[in-house]
Design brief:
The protein contains eleven helices and two strands; from the N terminus they run H-H-H-H-H-H-H-E-H-H-H-H-E. The chain has helices at 23-30, 46-50, 52-56, 62-71, 74-78, 91-95, 102-115, 121-133, 141-149, 160-170, 172-177; strands at residues 118-120, 181-183. Mean pLDDT is 86; it is low at 1-13 and 187-192.
């Protein structure tokens, strides 16, 4: 495995600024699911070639995300929309010759970002829908009518009080209200 000192560049031929390495981030990540194998990745690219997201989005490279995590470049990771795009299909795990778990590592990075108040707009909107309706996506009235018209049963009612109780116990609403930065918007705005 190449050391951070010996590898001069990452994506787009940008220089790596090792003064921004956050050793505490690396240690936190290594304690989370998948993180124990973080430094075993030797950048073979098997995860990239098997990733369905990478097939449609050329800039999405699980190995690159893992490499940036190995360097401890937390701010760079947290500013990237890529940490929110993993489909958790685990094709990367199935193909990795070293047993690195890129999907778990990427999910852990996104969770750490969320703990620090950074979230992708799609996740924030989905979470708001769950808080407000008990469903990830609101079902439009026209779709409900079409279901009825073709003889499908009504969708089950959501007990929003139970959902609220559960969400309150997880702290989701509080975390959403404490969001500092939203990734994936046209302006990547910082919320007040």
């Amino acid at each position: 495995m190449a050391s951070p000192e010996s590898e001069a560049t990452t994506r787009r031929s940008d220089k790596i600024n090792l003064t921004k390495t956050d050793q505490s981030f690396i240690k936190r990540l290594e304690k989370l699911p998948g993180g124990e194998a973080l430094k075993l990745c030797y950048q073979c690219g098997s995860c990239i070639s098997s990733c369905p997201v990478a097939q449609f989005l050329s800039e999405y490279k699980p190995a690159q995300i893992v490499r940036i995590a190995v360097y401890g470049l937390k701010d760079e990771l947290f500013a990237s929309r890529n940490i929110w795009l993993c489909s958790t299909c685990y094709a990367c795990l199935e193909r990795c010759p070293e047993g690195v778990r890129p999907a778990d590592i990427i999910r852990s990075i996104a969770n750490l970002a969320f703990q620090e108040g950074i979230v992708h707009i799609a996740f924030k909107e989905s979470a708001k829908n769950i808080v407000n309706t008990g469903r990830m996506f609101e079902v439009p009235e026209i779709r409900k009518k079409k279901r009825e018209k073709v003889g499908l049963p009504k969708l089950p009612e959501v007990n929003i009080d139970e959902v609220s109780k559960l969400l309150k116990s997880t702290g989701l609403e509080e975390r959403l209200s404490n969001t500092k930065k939203v990734i994936g918007t046209s302006e990547e705005k910082v919320e007040e």
